[in-house]
């Protein structure tokens, strides 16, 4: 048998290896969540995995309420992003602060302070960048757009709070589906 090989299937990493009867491939989606396929060729394995992943994505989208990703989708995305080291400490701190805040609502300035920054610009940049990665992971594009017509990615993680802060600042309110996913994430990653 030869060593394993790594392939890309969309945003997923696939590991393949030779077996006695052909090839086996695996996509790891989260802890204890993976998809396997066997075929005579690597191309056959990749085709089977692509079909299985498309079916799972379709099933997940059907479970959405008003098009918003489910807690399971967010949780799987958190695991994949963390495995690729794309769920960094600053983002974890901001999401933890937002989760713990009254009504899970904070301004960008408050999020910045939670991450250790003096200015809200850093929070907006980092949270928006992380939100875009999350959106790509869960195949979601927020309807809300900026003045240039591009998606406002932070709406993947949160909505506009019903009221501004006492100082008149815009505030983000965490999506309940993400809140549930984070609670489950922290349950399996207590030091995160």
List its traits:
192 residues, 2 domains, alpha+beta
Q: What gyration radius follows from the Cα positions, in whole Å?
A: 19 Å
Mean residue pLDDT: 90
Helix segment tally:
6
Main beta sheet: strand number and arrangement? 4 strands, antiparallel
Helix content bin = 40-55%
SSE succession: EEEEHHHEHHEEH
Structural class: alpha+beta
Q: Termini distance?
A: 38 Å
What report would you give on this structure?
It is a single chain. This protein is of the alpha+beta class and 192 residues long. It folds into 2 domains: 5-62, no CATH class; 71-188. It is built from 6 helices and 7 strands. A hairpin with a 2-residue loop joins strand 2 and strand 3 (22-30). The longest helix is centred in the N-terminal third of the chain and has 21 residues, at 42-62. It starts with a strand and ends with a helix.
Concise summary:
The protein is of the alpha+beta class and 192 residues long.
